[in-house]
Amino acid sequence: MRGSLRPGACLGEISGPGGNDRCPLGSGRPRHAAAGSLAGAVRYGSDGPVHRLAAGSAPLLECALRMRTFLHWLLSLLYGFRAYNLSVLRTPGPVLLLPNHLSWWDWLLIGVCLEKDWRFVTSLRAAEISWLHRRMAVNGRTFPVDMDSPFAVKRMAEYLRGGGRLVLFPEGRLSRSGSLAKLFDGTGFLIFKTHAKVITACIRGALRLTFSPNPAFKRWFPRLSVHFSDLLTPPSLGPISVTAARARLTDWLRAQMVKQQFETEMEFGPTTLPVAIAQAARQRPRQVVVQDSTMKPLTYRRLLLGADLLAAQWRQRFGAAEQRVGILLPNANAMPLAILSLWAADKIPVILNYSLGPASLLACAHLAGLKQIITSRTFVERLNLDLEPFKAAGLEFVFLEDVRAQITRRQKWSALRPRLINLQPPTCNLQPDDTAVILFTSGSEAEPKGVELTHRNVLANIRQLLSVIDVVDTDRFFNAMPLFHSFGLMAGLLLPLVRGVFVFLYPSPLHYRVVPSAFYNLDCTIFFGTNTFLAGYARKADPYDFHRLRYVFAGAEKLQEATCEVWLHKFGLRILEGYGATECSPCLCANVPLRPRHGSVGRFLPRGRQQPARGGLRPNPFSES
Asked: Which of the listed CATH numbers 1.20.950, 3.30.379, 3.40.1130, 1.10.357 matches domain 19-268?
């Protein structure tokens, strides 16, 4: 196994001396641990570009001691680097600084913010490889330990008890998705033994650096920032075994780091959905992001261009008083185009459930105060929907085929020119607390109710999920869940658009034989369904149809044990169940790969709160997003 020299090495695989607490690195070979300096880019036995990069940059480690101000200025110039809440770093020891880990440059981003007495934990064994490794692993800014020794944690504990301040990367490796990977419990063990104060750090933007292991999109000069938390005091555990304490404190630390990542994105990330989607589009304008059953791909550039063209038509057709416009469309490319174009025209999309009967559809339209409904003539014919009751009620149907025919070449060229230069979000006056979309509940408990979801609601739920699920740039979503359902809309369309990954929209989840074949042909990796749909796919699918599938999520109804068993034995896949409600944007809790629990719907998402109801359900004011 190849390892890496890293000032800031993984404490996670170090426990305490003796018994089961012995360090699992007893094989005598360095593990793939976290990086704390540029030396982290040097791999054992490597003579490739990464090795040469580290060798040429070796003097930076000592220069950082004398040139911290200059390096900070240089990072600000090249990467727009900013550091927040620096005052907490003046906290006297014992204190542990625990950052997330995205790139080989994390040591530099953290190091330029620290005073001289902060130490990065490094591997003493790795320092024996060469003089270069020794120089980088053993110097005034490092705390070298023998990673093979069960007494390494004792040395660190003694240093902390003496008032020391250490930097550790508790993930033990670089993240490939930007979300937090698993934390090794050696960090929790050290916190338990020393009662040290804790500071977490959220490094933002480094995933796109050329020095990141992210296998997909990179940039030469991404915007970088480091966000330090307030001082955290570990919880008091009382009389408890070492093993239980180690697990409890590691779990507490992970909750704090995930919470900080979510809050940082909410504070510093885009505040509305059009801006968030445009930000992803600027990074990869030629990325194919949406495709439907017609197999016509939509790149980000074509998606935003089409939204601009339609928005110009909506401004001419819809008056200023008509704020809400209905959408009656299937899972197709036209759906994201219609939604984005209405946002660009300062209108609120109201997505109607076409599976309801005409009477229920008409009631929903009246409830939302609609006067116009955007649809497709082809779809209405296939749906065999009688439009006369709607026209008699004063509703106007706007057919996309007619609108498309009215767009001239000159209008297309006028919209294309600015998109060739810059993919800015459409000019509109949307605010975070403005209504982003109106959906209708399924009607499982009573008559369908209209639910207004704001941009902040939807973005918060997307970021909650991305903070606990490792979605990577190369993932490919397959969504057959209807987009009039909050589950299908948020997880199956808006999440991939904001994250910048491909999504295939299939018009019906009831095609139990066709869906697995389409999934196989498209090499998708993430899938959504209900218990009924997943059981149907399992009956008709070939065992190899889902061989590329990484995660399958179930919601909207209780997952049955039989469905779990057949997916596990036939496809070798574990179904991750979640729970939500349309009013909650919609996901409340979910089983995730890092915290799976069979038979449950998982833990609450970051910053989610629950309150037991006594004497029946009652309203509970949530003070958090």
From this structure: 3.40.1130
